[in-house]
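Researcher: Please translate sequence to structure tokens.
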Amino acid sequence: MLILASTSPYRRELLQRLRLPFDCARPEVDEQPLQAESPAQLVRRLARAKADAVAGRFAEAWVIGSDQAADLDGQVLGKPGGRDAAIAQLSAMGGRTVRFHTAVCLRRGAHALAAVDLTQVRFRALSAAEIERYVEAEQPFDCAGSFKCEGLGISLFEAIESHDPTALVGLPLIALAGLLREAGYALP
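Model: Translation complete:
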């Protein structure tokens, strides 16, 4: 049995690409950063905590936990939650490079496998009108960094540097496929 420790529709849609049967479960994890925790440390800890929280309820299942954080000069940019915060995030990112750390943890019992992907996104200079049009069009309030790269958000960028294009959406499938193969799954 395979369980995705997430209720994210983005992660669920990505995992479906691997054509493995899976269920989803809410992990119920406090996602607040710890004092002096770097963005990379934060996502590693939260991916493991999400997998741990669900694995405790399903002893025989492999559980996938994942987390992502946007890193602007060492400051974590989380999900904006609303229009004003999304506009503020996009305004701060315009003309700059933002690092997105995406961690994945695969756990069953005491056995845990993990990986972290780093994606760098170079935003073009963004006018206030462009930001407002974008936020109105996609309402990216549940996305770290306030954009949906799989949608209109791609128009905000100059370049993306990544080993895994799915990581920016929220689940690094290249790394996860490797972890699943290590755990005994046959992919493809």
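Researcher: Any highlights?
Model: The two ends are 17 Å apart (CA to CA).
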